[in-house]
Amino acid sequence: MTKPLHTLLLAAVLGSSMLAAHAEPRALIDTNMGKITVALNQQQAPQSVANFIDYANKGFYNGTVFHRVINGFMIQGGGFSADMKQKDTGKAITNEADNGLKNQKYTLAMARSAQPHSATSQFFINVADNAFLNHQNKTNQGWGYAVFGKVIDGTAVVDNIAKVPTTRRGYHENVPQKPVVINKITILN
To answer: Which residues, if any, are the signal sequence (predicted)?
Structure first.
């Protein structure tokens, strides 16, 4: 017996959406403290994901560090070498914090300066629900920080990084006393 056309169309749509859900890129962040796997939300944060993938594929993140670690808040990396020299980056991207994704525990977001559209290579992983970082409005104070992924494996590694002892180095605060090195970020699909 032949299935009705609407049933076949529904099955095709559901099948393609399930396929699309599995097609979201993932990245492996290999650190000297362990590995972290993140799912990147290309659908809701296309520019942020493309930017992150571009830096990863160029090897930009190799040898950078989590240079700002605040337990109970976040771990930030992707812009400095172990000797705290800032790397040269490409141009800034548009802030996608109005994409509906929230700065919840274990989400990955773009780091930026006080200017909303200033993110380049640096990112952070929230180690708590940080609602105050979410988009509120399109003012300098209300833009928020664009979430573009979520940790799907390696949360214990994130928690361990968040607990490392920190110090001050030059004008940088909350710098791990012993460098937490990002050996490499590999895009998995």
So the answer is: 1-23
Output the 3-class SS for the chain.
Answer: CCCCHHHHHHHHHHHHHHHHHHHCCEEEEEECCEEEEEEECCCCCHHHHHHHHHHHHCCCCCCEEEEEEECCCEEEEEEEECCCCECCCCCCCCCCHHHCCCCCCCEEEECCCCCCCCCCCCEEEECCCCHHHCCCCCCCCCCCCCEEEEEEECHHHHHHHHCCCEEEECCEEEEECCCCEEEEEEECC
Q: How far apart, in whole angstroms, are the C-alpha atoms of residue 111 and residue 73?
A: 13
d(CA 29, CA 125): 12
Please answer whether residues 116 and 110 qualify as being in contact, where contact means their C-beta atoms are separated by less than 8 angstroms.
no
Is the whole-model pTM more than 0.70?
yes
> Cα–Cα distance between 47 and 148 in angstroms, integer?
9
Ramachandran angles phi, psi of 94, nearest 5°: -70, 135
Q: Hey, what are 46's tokens?
A: 């296309």
C-alpha 179/C-alpha 189 separation (Å) is 29
- Cα–Cα dist 98/164, whole Å: 32
Residue 188's identity, in one-letter code, is L
**pLDDT cut 90: percent of the chain above it:** 87
What are the tens digits of pLDDT across the range 159-184? Answer: 999 999 999 999 999 999 999 999 99
